[in-house]
Amino acid sequence: ESIKTVLRSPENRILIKRMLIKCADISNPCRPIEQCIEWAGRISEEYFAQTDEERRQGLPVVMPVFDRNTCSIPKSQLSFIDYFIIDMFDAWDAFADLPNLMEHLNNNIKYWKGLDGRNLRVLRPPPE
């Protein structure tokens, strides 16, 4: 009933649509683990290439943490999750009840923390 009340206002509907678009844009940590890892790798590679190109051209480096020789992908993922994802998706979950997304988020946090706890900087642990 409270959702119906919120949806009666055109301004609220617009706000909810904007929230959905933003959540969809940054939702990688809420995907199943294999998709999350794949896209974390793609995004990291894009940022590494940007940093490489900025250095090659003598430009200021916008994201110095994305130096491919020193970057910890698990740390970068955990920072992103802490800064952007947790509060946004907690709020969205309280509004729309999204247990699957929240379960994926929790699994992904555990995965990245596991790699970080082993001081690994890569997407996947080495084969045993």
From TrEMBL:
> SUPFAM superfamilies in the record, alphabetically?
HD-domain/PDEase-like
Domain PDEase, residue spans: 1-119
Which GO molecular function terms does the record list?
3',5'-cyclic-nucleotide phosphodiesterase activity; metal ion binding
Task: Return the PROSITE patterns for the record.
Answer: PDEASE_I_2 (PS51845)
Q: Which GO terms describe its biological process?
A: signal transduction
Keywords in alphabetical order, please: Hydrolase, Metal-binding
Pfam families in the cross-refs: PDEase_I (PF00233)
Cited InterPro entries: PDEase_catalytic_dom, PDEase_catalytic_dom_sf
- Report if keyword Hydrolase is assigned: yes
Protein name (database record): PDE8A phosphodiesterase
Question: What species is this protein from?
Answer: Neopipo cinnamomea
Upper lineage is:
Eukaryota, Metazoa, Chordata, Craniata, Vertebrata
